[in-house]
Design brief:
The protein has ten helices and three strands. By secondary structure, it is mainly alpha-helical. The chain has a three-stranded mixed beta sheet, with helices on one face. The radius of gyration is 20 Å and the shape is globular. The chain starts with a helix and ends in an 8-residue tail after the last helix. The model has no long low-confidence stretch (mean pLDDT 90).
């Protein structure tokens, strides 16, 4: 009996040590990435293992055409500048839409997507969602909105093996992301939810319609100040 209790105490001790180590390492990583571009993500590693090349080219937010951030806000997170990582209105709306059936929609913010893209895998169910929430709180606290948008636009998948809007712009339009028209920004924003299935060049069906909608909304985001936190 004493031996079993000793083993139990050791297991509990190691458990709490592991949690403590995870908390320390995760905070240090978030602090580091506040200043240093993330060198690679688990999604990129997955592409490399699958035999796909990895194309990425980091560009500071100050050089990325503002149309791109506006298109991302229009398509992914209209309350990006006002929420603190979680848009509970969007989550509720997504739940009600999905309950009615039809096209499945998520309520994830750009902050949540950035946390997932940088620190986690794409799948994983509820455990991953819990970690996503944890990292979302960290980056909202330690990075701020401009850095979150900067990292998001540089690590988001914009095609098979293509990461970031700069690499995406060069792939689809033949020039970097420093000068993008509202139409080009809208097309890339339209493929962000499903970059492996959608194309920004000669888009069809929903992708084309959604891209045209986002192109029009770029001006709305600018005029309504929905990108104020990035200026």
């Amino acid at each position: 009996m004493p031996r079993k209790r000793s083993l139990l105490r050791r297991a509990i001790g190691w458990f709490f040590k592991a949690i403590g180590a995870f908390l320390i390492v995760s905070v240090l990583m978030v602090v580091l990435y506040r200043f240093v571009p993330p060198p690679i993500t688990l999604t990129m590693i997955g592409d490399a293992v699958s035999g796909h090349g990895i194309s990425k080219s980091w560009m500071p937010l100050s050089r990325i055409d503002p149309n791109m951030a506006r298109a991302a806000i229009a398509g992914e997170d209209g309350r990006f500048c006002t929420h603190h990582g979680f848009d509970f209105v969007a989550i509720e709306r997504a739940y009600l839409r999905n309950a009615r059936g039809g096209r499945i929609r998520g309520g994830s913010t750009i902050s949540q997507q950035t946390a997932k893209n940088v620190f986690l895998i794409q799948g994983g169910g509820y455990p991953r969602k819990a970690l996503e929430a944890y990292f979302t709180v960290l980056i909202e606290t330690l990075w701020g909105k401009r850095r979150i948008m900067e990292v998001y636009l540089n690590v988001a998948e914009t095609g098979i093996g293509t990461y970031g809007v700069n690499a995406g712009s060069m792939r689809y339009f033949g020039h970097d992301a420093s000068s993008m028209s509202p139409s080009e920004a809208g097309r890339i924003a339209a493929i962000l939810p499903q970059p492996k299935k959608r194309a920004a060049v000669a888009p069809r069906g929903f992708t084309r319609r959604h891209g045209n909608t986002l192109t029009r909304r770029v001006a709305v985001v600018r005029n309504d100040g929905l990108d104020a936190c990035l200026r």
